[in-house]
Specification:
It is a single chain. The protein is of the alpha/beta class. The protein has one domain (35-338): D-Maltodextrin-Binding Protein, domain 2 (3-Layer(aba) Sandwich). Helix content is 50%, strand content 18%. The chain has helices at residues 2-31, 50-66, 84-93, 124-131, 134-140, 143-147, 185-194, 206-211, 222-227, 253-257, 261-295, 305-325, 329-338, and strands at 37-42, 71-76, 98-99, 149-164, 178-181, 197-200, 217-220, 236-252, 299-301. Strands 1, 2, 3, 4, 5, 6, 7, 8 and 9 form a nine-stranded mixed sheet that branches. α7 links the parallel β5 and β6. The radius of gyration is 25 Å and the shape is globular. The termini are far apart.
Amino acid sequence: MKKNKFFGLAVASFASILLLAGCNNEGEAEGDSGAKKVIKIANYFAEDHPQNVALREKFKPMIEEESNGELEVQIFPNNTLGAEKEFYDGVRNGTIEMGIPGLIMQADIPKMGVPEWPFLFKSFEHAKNVLNGPIGEELTEDLESEHGVKPLAWSANGFRMFSSNQPIESLGDFDGLRIRMPNIPNYIKLGELLGTNVSPLAISEVFTALEQNVVDGQDNPIATLRASGWHEVQSDVLESKHMFSPNVFIVNVDFWNGLTDEQQQIIETASLETAEHEFELLEQSYEEDKKFLQENGVKFTTPSADFSAEMEAAAQPLLEEIYAEYDWAEDLAERIRAEAP
């Protein structure tokens, strides 16, 4: 019995040594730059939106090929990992490595809301030049310190327009119209200044709200209108171009700091090239999207110069409030306008 007991203890001790050795080897493998790292990247766009097309065509293959398989990209479109706030918080706390939110962080970081000030950008070229230059860097400079996410690139959602279940041909047509807008103060204020009754719903709730006539319309770029199928429950689009909505590629700072310099460079380059590709896809798709929507029964109204001027004038109190609240705001707006081609 004693012999057997001793033999059992010896086997157990040997097994423990092997287990510890295995754990040590596993830890070294995880810390090794050659170990595969998974990058989950989340967004709220439909799968066939230019944002996800660009991720599939550029981002994923570039990163996986350039890293020789050390990095694996998993794309999660269409709120798969939660609505915008949920996946943005996921990137902040590190449960999701990367995301492409809109400007939801502007509640804490006011400069991040600047691109969506009304009637600020005049064209895709204007927006691209501003966001990819010194002003774009100025807007994102507090993201890392305030929210623990590192900005990598600006991409485009596009110029926002109103879709509705009735024509909007004058400022008076906004009166009492029930419009879904994002739950962001500047959006809500703009909708109210135009005369609408604003319903701030999550983007995932929009189709049902339109279908059941809970709201009469919504505001988004027409690429989103098409990709999300909302044209099935809307009859009209006003080409108001009242805001330009960008998106920003972000990565969790702790995840980023755990990468090698080479891996960081690969991800940064892929983000910039993917965002550039998405900008091009979105701009090129406008006429195609418009034609598709028209063929599916949606009527487009291009506002006259007078109507556009009336909308801008109606929005001016919002800008005046912003200028009064932030001493940097009016100067920044003027610098942006000065870069218009």
